[in-house]
Amino acid sequence: MFDLGGKVAIVTGSGSERGIGRATAVALAEQGATVIVTDINAEGIQNTVSIIQNAGGKANGITLDVTDQASVDSMVKEVMDTYGHIDILVNNAGISQRLSVADMKVEDMKRLFEINVFGLFRCTKAVLDIMKAQKKGRIINLSSVAGKRGGGVFGGAHYSATKAAVLGFSKNLAREVSRDGITVNCVAPGLTNTDIWASLTEDVTTALIKDIPVGRPGETREIAAAIAFLASDEAAYITGEEIDINGGSHMD
Ligand SMILES: NC(=O)c1ccc[n+]([C@@H]2O[C@H](COP(=O)([O-])OP(=O)(O)OC[C@H]3O[C@@H](n4cnc5c(N)ncnc54)[C@H](O)[C@@H]3O)[C@@H](O)[C@H]2O)c1
């Protein structure tokens, strides 16, 4: 089950060393997909590609800035020219900013929406007609527990707003494209063991863990595993859904 052999998967923001994107790229490749590793960070891209290839997987790196329409269009064209199909898109690229609304400027809000929401929109739109023509596709978007309950530890209200927007956008799109064989789902991670977590002092992590029933942050591989499942043929009857991966810190 969950064999992704023969499929081409684009993962945005998959260059970060301890990030969810890299773990996702690795997991999709382990399931047999050819992974297009994309990021603004060229060195990070190369490292992710090397990790996958050294493990015997298939990967190709393309520099991508999701805020730049020309960059998105050229990445999609290069993938289509090389492979002729795009089966999976994981919209992972995203940023946060710890800031209270009192201190927030319109520019802060715009910057987060530009990457977390408009970036996702650009990439999604760029593959939509391709997936429609194929009558098959998987779009998986990174939301967050912060988009459901607010109060993200690493982000402000603007971050929560972008991640709530991702949920609404995904549900609406799922309704639009279900008859085309395309599913659109989200994963909503809680605290995850990435760079930011690693940079916190023990006092802070101990306080944060108190609110997590499982008693630890999530591992990036645990987020990636859910994404790999949603990308599989076996998940064809799941759409417009979000999978909460938060150790029980938020239960619907
Ligand atoms: N880490 C967490 O605890 C957590 C929790 C919930 C949701 N998320 C979401 O998961 C996703 C990944 O988070 P992460 O913690 O792994 O972050 P990360 O910072 O490790 O990775 C994000 C990647 O996005 C890339 N990126 C930034 N701007 C870009 C742009 N304009 N174009 C292309 N790429 C760009 C960065 O270079 C980086 O490699 C984000 O959408 C984040 O909001 C993370």
Describe it for me?
α1 crosses α9 and α3 runs parallel beside α4. This protein has one domain: Rossmann fold (3-Layer(aba) Sandwich). It is of the alpha/beta class. 46% of the residues lie in helices and 15% in strands. A seven-stranded parallel beta sheet has the order 3-2-1-4-5-6-7, with helices on both faces. It is globular. It is built from nine helices and seven strands; from the N terminus they run βαβαβαβαβααβαααβ.
What descriptive keywords fit this protein?
15% strand, 252 residues, binds nicotinamide-adenine-dinucleotide, globular, seven-stranded parallel beta sheet, 7 strands, Rossmann fold, alpha/beta
Short précis:
With 252 residues, this protein is of the alpha/beta class. Helices cover 46% and strands 15% of the residues.
Radius of gyration from the CA trace?
Answer: 17 Å
- Shape from CA axes? globular
Strand order of the largest sheet: 3-2-1-4-5-6-7
CATH class equals Alpha Beta
**Small molecules in complex:** nicotinamide-adenine-dinucleotide
Strand content: 15-25%
Low-confidence stretches: none
- Let me know the number of strands: 7
How many separate domains make up the residues?
A: 1
Helix/strand-derived class? alpha/beta
Helix content: 40-55%
Helix-strand pattern? EHEHEHEHEHHEHHHE
CATH fold description: Rossmann fold
Number of helices: 9
End-to-end separation? 28 Å
Mean pLDDT: 97
